Amino acid sequence: MGTTSTRQGRAWVEVDLGAVVTNAERLLGHLPAGARLLPMVKADAYGLGMAPVAAALARALGERLWGFGVAAVAEAAALRAEGWTGRILVCAPVAPSELEDAAALGVRVAVSDLAAVRRWARWGRRWGRTLPFHVEIDTGMGRAGFPWRAASRWSARVAAAVAEGGADWEGAFTHFHSADAPDLAATDEQWRRFRWAVTRLPEGMGRLRHVANSAAAWRRGGYGLPLARPGIFLYGGEAGPGTPNVPVVSVRARVVRVALAAPGATVGYGAEHRAATSERWATIALGYGDGYRRASWPAGAHVLLHGRPARVLGRVSMDMIVVDATGVPQVRPGDIATLLGRDGDATISLADLARWWDTIDYEVLTGWTRRLPRIYRGADE
Questions:
Q1: Model confidence pLDDT, tens digit, residues 302-344
Q2: Euclidean distance between CA atoms 137 and 143, whole angstroms
């Protein structure tokens, strides 16, 4: 998991845990009364630090928190090591070699084929326990799950495997592929497919149903189901049209050098920027080794210095970037540059970085490397 710190060194990520909680509360307001959340804390809580994020959500949500979702058994182990004893669902298929570890951790696994169900049940019988699992139903995502059209056939076989003992078919779910798109027709169709498939399940099997990611929770009220699996919305990312949330993450770095550049001076590998007139350059202690993409230069990215934009000049290096501080004459070494977040009245958003880097909010969030310590605000530690 990410490094935690209270010290502002060369560069760092600020995480507002209070904003994470606020976003969770907002989503709950769009769900049916009594609904609970299964927050996705995979990929180190989208790069923000799984342990502090999970602790803040657990404290704030109480009984409204059903458990936490991860994508790997190792992530479940990390949560257990931090003291979380509640429910964990590994939402991605688990390799056969990791099922014993999953059973030992007391987590739930998602299964996509009959062989996985049988293996899981065998571990339960071997240990004299009943191990819960959730069946994924593929309604169009294509990467995992039992086919929705064949629900009558495979569900009978899954139920027969459960009847042998060792496993409890607790849940059934699907993944939406386009719930953040302007048009929700494809998502509504996936919901219809899921709803049809679960009517074919044997009575009492897969009794806990969940489908809603962040976008479907906000825009479709989780389709009326009692459990939702939010991710990106919690962390300040966009979850489709009409899904306003509170920003969570800021990235800041120190100015380490300020210099005057004469006309014709060049900067960066490849000398791709040449000063046309006299310029004032500020070197900032952060680069692609920290997660700030090389694509920033040709895309016209900027940072904020004293609340004013300063354009990135030349190729981003592994450890440094240079910006045009000509319009910010007061900048000095030791000042703080904002690469993501608010500075005064100006803001650089996740969407801005995603546009400059030709990617999505998810990749921006998860791309900040371990070299940047995470500094937490807004919730008791």
A1: 999 999 999 999 999 999 999 999 999 999 999 999 999 999 9
A2: 11
Per-residue pLDDT of 222-247, as tens digits, reads 999 999 999 999 999 999 998 899 99
Tokens in use for 120? 């899981």
Under 8 Å between Cβ of 328 and 299: no
142-150: list long-range contacts, CB under 8 Å, 24+ apart. Answer: 143/175, 144/92, 144/93, 144/110, 144/112, 144/175, 145/112, 145/174, 145/175, 146/112, 146/113, 148/174, 148/193, 148/194, 148/196, 148/197, 149/197
Cα 260 to Cα 11, 268, 273, 300, 322: the distances in Å are: 23, 15, 15, 21, 12
Q: Read off the pLDDT of each residue in 52-72 and give the average, rounded to a whole number.
A: 98
Q: Is 223 a catalytic residue?
A: no
Helix (H) or strand (E) run with residue 70 in it: strand 68-70
Question: Of 46, 269, 288, 362, which one is the catalytic site residue?
Answer: 269
* Model confidence pTM above 0.85: yes
Q: Is 288 marked active-site?
A: no
- Of 42, 46, 292, 376, the active-site residue reads 42
